[in-house]
Amino acid sequence: MSQKTTVSFHLSSDNSGVGSNSQYTLQLQPELSIPHTAKPTVYLHNLLFDNNIANVNGLLYDNDKIIVSFGGVTQTIIVPAGAYSLEALEMYIALKIYDAGIGATSLWGLLDKAVTNGTNPSGTTIPSANRPKGLANPYSVSKSDEFSRDPGEWQQTLNVAQISSLETLLPIGYTGNQFWVKPITLEGDIASNRVEAVTAVQMTVDVGSTLWTKLLGFTDAQATHTSSYTPLIADNPARIDGSRGVCFHCPSLASGTYSTGGKMGGSQLALVPITAGLGEVQSWEASVPVKVPCRAAGSKVGSINFYLANEDGLPIDLLGDRFEAVVVVEF
Question: Distance between CA 254 and CA 9 in Å, rounded?
């Protein structure tokens, strides 16, 4: 019985050339040569990466735009690629509206005036004691030092349930105008597994707002109308947790798997569930390696191509971070 040959490849995105769709290439010296009579297999042994996977990326997912209109003013906001929570999205949208409205009554000043006037689109006037002070300044956040007593306007804002009850009920724990509101408040409705949104003034989120539809789960019909103090629940699930697993692909070596489209010839070696928290290191090792046919029999391999994708086969963005893997070929 002939002795089995094992060749391992230690792959790193840092030490490899990067091409289109975040595919990496490692040049081999010398080339890998496998006899044509061999029946080689390949498998993923280790994978190491930081859980900093972008859920917003205009180039990869086309989900980075929100267009808001209010009081005759329309503003287009492009969210940079990143890993965002609902709270982070609220903050970014508010910052962009606030920055555009400094020194002008057409944006932040217009919104702030509409909030303190306290009149809903339905014509219902909010009791004066229940009206917010105004829009929370997104730059006014709580100080971390022990000498500060100011919690910051952004920390004194209301949640969706409190905002929706302003017409008839003063939020519990507040007396008079002690609270602020955000331009758009976003919350996850656990019961329905949907995002819930409420705006501080009558505002439309225009069609073409890919962040609104593709990330947060609202439909085009819902994108055309939101009314102040009236919660809107998305028709579709959100994609805030855009990647629940990472697939390692090695098209130079693997060809014996079915792709996510159901076609034979896919290059996926393993699906690694994400168990690390946001920003933490994910370290995975195969306990029972799944060995798939290797396409390199009877040829010379001068380079290794590899990349990561999510569970849907879409490329992922690690926001400039690196990943490492160990791939093993046996023949």
Answer: 14
In the chain, the domains with their CATH numbers are 6-53+243-330 (2.60.120.1100), 58-233 (no CATH)
- Alpha carbon distance 250, 14 (integer Å): 16
Report residue 210 as tokens: 């890919």
User: Taking the alpha carbons of 84, 86, 92, 96 in that order, is the dihedral positive or negative?
Assistant: positive
Give the CA distances from residue 205 to residues 75, 96, 198, 221, 242, in Å, rounded to whole numbers and listed in that order: 10, 15, 12, 10, 22
Alpha carbon separation from 202 to 63, 112, 136, 233, 247 (Å, rounded): 24, 12, 17, 16, 43
- Across 3-21, average pLDDT: 79
Stated as kind and residue range, the H or E segment containing 65 is: strand 65-70
**Residue 239 confidence (pLDDT):** 87
Q: For residue 121, what pLDDT is reported?
A: 47
Give the mean model confidence (pLDDT) for residues 302-314. Answer: 87
Query: How far is the first Cα of the chain from the last one, in angstroms, to the nearest whole number?
Result: 13
Count CB-CB contacts under 10 A for residue 69: 15
Give the global pTM: 0.82
